Every structure is written in structure tokens, then in C-alpha cells.
């Protein structure tokens, strides 16, 4: 019988869609947005490498060391002692007119030396010069003394001046005595050393004061002091 013809498969043209990969997306579960809003977040600290941590620790130690060193130096740095005229009493005064104009004065003096440092003050000498109207009348010298740390010491001395020539200033002195107030100029100088452990630091302090003495009750009305 007749032979059946075998149909030949025609080649199919490939479409562009077949060459592209297929992607599949799963739908989000219901309530996903509500669940995302309820999530909790954990914030982790920034991690510092070991080198940076050591550098930061080293800087903190250096800063603390410098601060402590500054405090120690400030505390141990020597300071000038405070010198005040506690009492300057006019005990005796006599004016001579023959054979020349002169004056006899006896002054009772107490000087306070205050040590503000953390170590003792050992002074070899304490000199006080007393003047009137920028003219020196005389001076007092005190010997060795010791002032403890954060303490005070009082030096008592008497100045006797006999036959001091004042010439033109005698008129002003008489006026001051009549007013009941006399201004004296004092210059106090301390020489010694500060005892710091096993060391001795040399010290020299000089203070000038204007002392106003009330001659009625023999007390100091006021004084103005300044270091030199």
C-alpha cells in the first residue's frame, strides 16, 4: 500500500523570552508590616582595636600624672613670708632745742612673721628700719628665729633714739602729735632659709609699710604694706 509520509518537525524559532532567566518571588506573608513595626533593634558599640585602647589609656595616665605633678610643685613652691607690724607704740618723745634741734624717741615694736609654706622657716636675721618722712630714724636687728610650717612668730624689740636731728621735720612732727596720728615708714627684711626635707632653700624677703600710730591710745590706726 501507499507509504505514509513521516511528518518532518519544523524548527521553532526561539523567542527572546526563552533566553532570559526566570525569577520567582514568594509573596510576603500576611501581617508582615505589622510584625516589622514590632521588631526590637540592638545597637552595638563601636569596636576599638587594642592599639587604640592602649593609646587612649596611655594619654589618660599622662594627663593625670602631669596634673598631680603640677599640684605637688604648687604646694611645695616657696613663698615669701607675710610680715606685719603688729604693734608700734610711741613710749617716749622729748624734743631738744639747745644746743641744736633734736628729738629723743623710744618705740616699742612687735613684728609678726607668718609662714604659709608646708615646711619650716629658719631666719638668721630680721632687720627693721624705722623712718619719718622718708628720713631714717634708726633700725632694729633681731637674731636667729624659727617659724614652723603654717605658723607665725612674733619678734619683740625696743628702739631707743637719742638726739636724732630732724631740723625742718620737727614742725611736721609737732603737728602730727597735735592731731594724734603719726605716720612712720618701716622697712622689714628677713634673711634665712626654708627647710625642705634634707634641703635648705635660701630666702630673702623685704617689705615696706606705712604705719599710722594713734598717739592717744598708742595703737596702730592702719598700715599699708607692699613687698619690694
UniProtKB/TrEMBL annotation:
Chain residue ranges for the region called Disordered: 1-30
Residue ranges annotated for the Late embryogenesis abundant protein LEA-2 subgroup domain, each copy included: 111-205
Transmembrane segments annotated in the record for this chain: 58-77
Localisation: Membrane
UniProt GO BP: defense response to other organism
Protein topology in the membrane: Single-pass membrane protein
One Pfam assignment: LEA_2
The keyword Endoplasmic reticulum belongs to this UniProt entry's keyword annotation: no
GO cellular component: membrane
UniProt KW keywords: Membrane, Transmembrane, Transmembrane helix
Domain of life of the source: Eukaryota
Record's protein name: Late embryogenesis abundant protein LEA-2 subgroup domain-containing protein
Species in which this protein is naturally found: Davidia involucrata
Phylogenetic placement of the source organism: Eukaryota, Viridiplantae, Streptophyta, Embryophyta, Tracheophyta
Amino acid at each position: 500500500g501507499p507509504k505514509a509520509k513521516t511528518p518532518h518537525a519544523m524548527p521553532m524559532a526561539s523567542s527572546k523570552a526563552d533566553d532570559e532567566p526566570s525569577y520567582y518571588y514568594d509573596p510576603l506573608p500576611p501581617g508582615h508590616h505589622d510584625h516589622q513595626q514590632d521588631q526590637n533593634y540592638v545597637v552595638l558599640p563601636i569596636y576599638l582595636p587594642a592599639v587604640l585602647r592602649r593609646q587612649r589609656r596611655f594619654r589618660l595616665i599622662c594627663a593625670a600624672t602631669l596634673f598631680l605633678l603640677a599640684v605637688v610643685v604648687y604646694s611645695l613652691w616657696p613663698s615669701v613670708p607675710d610680715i606685719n607690724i603688729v604693734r608700734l607704740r610711741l613710749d617716749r618723745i622729748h624734743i631738744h632745742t639747745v644746743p641744736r634741734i633734736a628729738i629723743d624717741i623710744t618705740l616699742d615694736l612687735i613684728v609678726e612673721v607668718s609662714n604659709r609654706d608646708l615646711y619650716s622657716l629658719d631666719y638668721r636675721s630680721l632687720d627693721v628700719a624705722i623712718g619719718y618722712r622718708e628720713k631714717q630714724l634708726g633700725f632694729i636687728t633681731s637674731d636667729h628665729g624659727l617659724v614652723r610650717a603654717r605658723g607665725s612668730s612674733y619678734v619683740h624689740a625696743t628702739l631707743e633714739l637719742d638726739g636724732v636731728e630732724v631740723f625742718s621735720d620737727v614742725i611736721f612732727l609737732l603737728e602730727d602729735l597735735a592731731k594724734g596720728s603719726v605716720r612712720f615708714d618701716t622697712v622689714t627684711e628677713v634673711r634665712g632659709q626654708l627647710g625642705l626635707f634634707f634641703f635648705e632653700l635660701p630666702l630673702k624677703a623685704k617689705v615696706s609699710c606705712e604705719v599710722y600710730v594713734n598717739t592717744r591710745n598708742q595703737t596702730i590706726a592702719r598700715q599699708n604694706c607692699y613687698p619690694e
